[in-house]
Write a structure and sequence with these properties.
Shape: elongated
Largest sheet: none
Distance between the termini: 90 Å
Radius of gyration: 25 Å
Order of helices and strands: HHHHHHH
Number of strands: 0
């Protein structure tokens, strides 16, 4: 048994065109509909928290947040981009370079310790250049 179409459907020229994001289109929107930019800023460390597998209690700890911020700043500087894919790759390469943490040390503590040493070395080199000119 062959099924034969009874009507051939062709697209009509009045079909709606896909929406395109443009400055002209955005200017017509109510600015109150935009997401708060500070909200976006507060979530910039979230990929790192997920990467290190932090629990909800650990995410609220100030010491851990300071470590996450220092790792974030270091990795953004190293990757020269605040794109999560790029700065996360920089952290992963750093983690592969320094190896697994010693027994009893978390990955977060291991990487943040190295970054603290790197920052101290950078500060000392800057101080040497400032004081002695080389």
């Amino acid at each position: 048994m062959d099924i034969k179409p009874t009507k051939i459907i062709t697209p009509s020229p009045a079909e709606p065109q896909p929406l395109v994001d443009s400055p002209e289109a955005r200017s017509s929107y109510d600015p109150r509909l935009y997401a708060d930019q500070s909200l976006v800023e507060s979530f910039k460390h979230y990929p790192l928290m997920r990467f290190f597998g932090l629990s909800e209690d650990e995410k609220a700890d100030d010491k851990i947040n300071d470590k996450i911020k220092s790792i974030y700043n270091f990795s953004v500087h190293k990757a020269q981009s605040n794109d999560p894919n790029k700065f996360m790759r920089a952290i992963r390469f750093l983690e592969m370079e320094i190896g697994t943490p010693p027994l009893g040390t978390t990955r977060l503590d291991h990487i943040s310790g190295l970054i603290e040493i790197e920052n101290n070395m950078h500060d000392l080199e800057n101080e040497r250049r400032f004081k002695y000119g080389f």
